[in-house]
Amino acid sequence: MSNPTPHIGTVHLVGAGPGDPDLLTLRAARLLTQARLVVHDGLVEPAILAMAHPQARLVSVAKRRAHHTMPQEDICALLVREALAGNDVVRLKGGDPLVFGRGGEEAEACRAAGVPVEIVPGISAANAAGAAAQIPLTHRDHASVVSFVAGQCKGLSEQDWSGLAGVGRTLVIYMGVKTAPQIAEKLMADGLAPDMAVAVIENAARPEMRVLRGPLAALPALIDDNKVKSPALIVIGEVTRERDVALAAIAVEARI
């Protein structure tokens, strides 16, 4: 008799969204409640992890600036090893797995090892921040282009950001809290006006969310003076002024 083909588990790369369990997709919630192994980021809220199956193993691979619980190569190896052992794995990632989530690298590692992969999208940090702060990332009157960039990438000063921000455009910067001075200097050196409107959105879609506003030239002080911590996004463009319109409308509604 021939040996049966060993079962290989599936790795589900699941977006956990911005943190509010109500903003999970139905597919994400279903997988989480069924999973026996959940490998999760540090930014995933405890309320979401609490939705996991009671018998699930929860493995944290939290990453912080300059401190990684587990190197990315080891995370990929862990996913492959568990799947080849026959386990279905939920790899739970903040936001969306394919937007600055390194989901592409993890999917490649799994496919190279013959492990099936499913990618379950989540609400990205940019979408969540815009919605929660009532700042539209695109607007017929203000912006028909939106760009996402990483603010802590290597060689930041050598990156070409010209044309990413300005009239008719919105620039959303992930992971830019620590490099805000370089970001502001870089954008103004590329010709962006010092008084261009900026919003810093900290802890988007969470109860402790803060939205700070100011001109581009004051971005470093805005972050330092208010002791902004990650997770936080920087949104640059005229669309940020729409928050004032939204808040004014809310105030009128409250008086009626």
Structure description:
The chain has 256 residues and is an alpha/beta fold. It has 2 domains: 11-120, 3-Layer(aba) Sandwich (Cobalt-precorrin-4 Transmethylase, domain 1), CATH 3.40.1010.10; 125-245, Methyltransferase, Cobalt-precorrin-4 Transmethylase, Domain 2 (2-Layer Sandwich), CATH 3.30.950. Helices cover 30% and strands 23% of the residues. It contains 8 helices and 12 strands. The protein has helices spanning 26-34, 46-49, 72-84, 103-112, 125-133, 180-189, 219-225, 242-255, and strands spanning 11-15, 37-40, 57-60, 63-64, 67-68, 89-93, 117-120, 143-150, 168-174, 197-202, 210-215, 232-236. The strands form 3 sheets. A 5-stranded parallel β-sheet has the order 3-2-6-1-7, with helices on both faces. A 5-stranded mixed β-sheet has the order 8-9-12-10-11, sandwiched between helices. A two-stranded antiparallel sheet has the order 4-5. Helix 3 packs across helix 4 (103-112). It is globular, with a radius of gyration of 20 Å. The termini are far apart. The mean pLDDT is 91.
